[in-house]
Every structure is written in C-alpha cells, then in structure tokens.
Amino acid sequence: MTGTESRTLTVISAGLTQPSSSRLLADRLTAATVAALDERGVGTDVEVVELRDHAHALVDNLLTGFPGGALRSVVARVAASDGIIAVTSIFNASYSGLYKSFFDVLDQGTLDGVPTLLGATGGTARHSLALEHAIRPMFAYLRAATVPTGVYAASEDWAGSGDQALAGRIARAGDELAAAMAGREHTGPADPFADAVPFEELLARQRAN
C-alpha cells in the first residue's frame, strides 16, 4: 500500500567488508520499518549509505572541517531525514572508528529530536552491551530520539532458533521507529533563503538612507 503521506528514512551502515553483517542487519531493519510505516498508510523514501564508500572523504572532512563531494550530499540527506537507522560493527566492545567519524562531522543539532534506531553486529554475544554503554550514550549526546529497542546481532543469531529471536527484535524495533516517524511532522529540508529580503526592498532602503 502506498500512503498519502511520506517520510524520509536514511540508513547508515558502517560495515567494513562487502558484503557485511552490518549491511544485512541494516537491510532487515529497513524492511521492518518500511512495512510498519506502510501499515500506517505512510510511504517511505529510503536511502542506504555505506560509510566505507566515504572513508577517505570523512578523513578529509575531519582535517579540513568541510565535507566534499558525495559526502556533502549524505550529510544534507541526514539533516533532512525524518528517521535514521544507524548500524555499526563492534570492535573492542565499542563502535567502529568509521562510524564515530561520520557522526563527528555532523553539525551540532543535526540529529536533534530525529527518531533513530540503533543496531550493531559482532562475532559474539558478549559485545551486545555495547549498544547501551557506548552507542546509545553517543546518540543521547547528539540529542537524537532513539527508540527503546536496539538490535544487536551476533554470529549465532543468523541461523536456526537464533534467527527467530532476532526477527522478533527487528520487527519490534522497526515498529517503534515507524511509530516515531509517523508521529513526527514532516517539514523537509530547511530553505536557507526562506527569510531573504527581496532585492527591491534592499534597494529601497538604500535609497531612503
């Protein structure tokens, strides 16, 4: 069903390999969110961003303070999004450096109040608490509106009964994000020239002086 309303969803995947388990989890979270929005009569404009494709541009941005090329478009897309799905692989019990670098280059306030679903992948379930002790605090600092359910997927979660439990967490998280996005007023990207003074008015003021 195609809804009369539409929301913009940007999916950030910080997997380092191709294919990656982070992208696999991101795709499943996206499908669950889109389906839940569709049930609410809301369409979805989805774009998936693979951070590995922007790794060099991120380093340049950190050094110069300015995003270049395709990274500039990604940053603008995130700033205009009604919802974010952000998935990272876990290294040494925390998010990857690539993932952190991306959120480091966003302007302050970019994620203020934006509904956000957090996901992570790793080789063992022992890293699952990284969602709560490392990733969620970072997004709290960025003032994103993270949904209650974060989804961590270890290697054993992709097969057998583990996949059934994972599917349940994905469905719950996707529904939470969809509810938050559907309830958020869609304003679209801000127009930097919306309050510009017409040239004729500026000229009239100059003549009056």
UniProtKB/TrEMBL annotation:
Q: Which GO terms describe its molecular function?
A: oxidoreductase activity
Tell me where on the tree of life, at the top rank, the source sits: Bacteria
Q: Does the keyword Signal apply?
A: no
Q: Which InterPro entries match?
A: CE1759_FMN_reduct (IPR023932), Flavoprotein-like_sf (IPR029039), FMN_Rdtase-like_dom (IPR005025), NAD(P)H-dep_FMN_reductase (IPR051814)
Keywords for the protein's UniProt record, in alphabetical order = Flavoprotein, FMN, Oxidoreductase
Please give the SUPFAM superfamilies that the UniProt record associates with this protein.
Answer: Flavoproteins
Q: What is its EC number?
A: 1.5.1.-
Q: Which residues form the NADPH-dependent FMN reductase-like domain?
A: 10-158
The answer to whether UniProt assigns keyword DNA repair to this entry is no
Q: How is this protein named in the record?
A: FMN reductase
Q: Which organism is it from?
A: Rhodococcus parequi
